[in-house]
Amino acid sequence: MRYVDKWRAVAAATGPAERAEAEEGVRLAYRSAGLTAPGRLIWVDSPRAAVAAVRSLEGAGRSVRDRIRTDPWADERRRVHDELGPAGWTDHWSRTGALLWDNTRALAERIRSGVADELAAEAAALAGGDEDEAAAERTAVRLVLMDAVLGQHDAAWLAAFDGRGERLAGLARVAEHAGWWWPFEQAVVLCERPVELHRDEAGRLDRGDGPALAFADGFALHAWRGMPVAADFLAGLASLTPERIRTEENAELRRVMLEFYGYDRYLAESGARPVHRDETGVLWRIALADDEDVAMVEVVNSTPEPDGTHKTYWLRVPPATRSAREGVAWTFGLDAAAYEPLRQT
Question: What parts of the chain have a pLDDT lower than 50?
Answer without folding.
Answer: 343-345
